[in-house]
Amino acid sequence: MRVFVTGASGHIGSALVPELLNAGHEVVGLARSGVSAAALAAAGADVRRGDLDDLDGLGDAAAAADGVVHLAFKHEDMRAGDFVGAVAADLRAVDTLGDALAGTGKPLVGTSGTLLLAHAGLGRVGTEADTLEAGPRIDAENAVVALAGRGVRSSVVRLPPTVHSSLDHHAFIPALIGIARAKGRSAYMGDGSNHWAAVHRLDAAHLFRLALEAAPAGARLHAVGDEGVPFREIAEVIGRHLNVPVVSIPPEQADAHFGYLGSLVSLDNPTSSLQTQELLGWKPIHPGLIEDLDQGHYFGNAT
Known about the structure:
The chain has 303 residues and is of the alpha/beta class. The protein has 13 helices and twelve strands. The protein has helices at 13-22, 34-43, 55-63, 75-79, 83-101, 138-146, 172-183, 201-214, 231-242, 254-258, 274-280, 289-294, 298-301, and strands at residues 2-6, 26-31, 46-49, 67-70, 107-113, 153-159, 162-164, 186-189, 195-200, 219-222, 226-230, 246-249. It is globular, with a radius of gyration of 19 Å. The relative contact order is 0.14. The mean pLDDT is 95.
């Protein structure tokens, strides 16, 4: 299968490309920069220069492929405060990719997040069957699933808030470590009993390949290894490695302490992947979040 991958040089994409190549697929990776293009070429992928704003290019690349994995998202814009713009760009990309594949029966694997379920107030462990009607990023997830009705074998992989590995330099865990280092204390909200799901990057990449190859149309999948790590436990590991105090932060101080993460650190996101494992035979085999943190590599990377 010739597979077009957006976000191919990113944290998960750089694991997915060799995963696909080793399984006998050809890969065409979207690259915004010369550095990304060189990395993809070195990995053995063909390169398509462009970005999420190049809708004509996205459509052409998708139409020429046997399947698409859409991983790219404007994370830099989100961190800079333009979350609305990043979400809108993602939805436009999904619509463009879907239009290119409509009626072909080819697979399109999109990307969403389990953290969205925390806003649903489930009061229990979230499952693949849980859905939301509308909202930022939810609209893109629902658009991908709806393509099943237009002759696309579409599926969505929901990623947990922490996709971890030794190459994770810019996501939530490095940000929390950087905050703890700068503030001189590692913090959690309230009693810190809220849970964050997690998965190792290599396990996530493997699931994206399985989804591309075999997920039924309209499937929602969970790339979850750790069903829910108490946030206080994450803070305690960070505090121990940085040798700083671990403290509780009251809600009114969340934004001042955590910055753009202030609205997220108290969310409870226990999430199951049991249905995904049963459907596709996927099983996470790489280290969990706490074990990965205790290997120490995060504490040389965080800034």
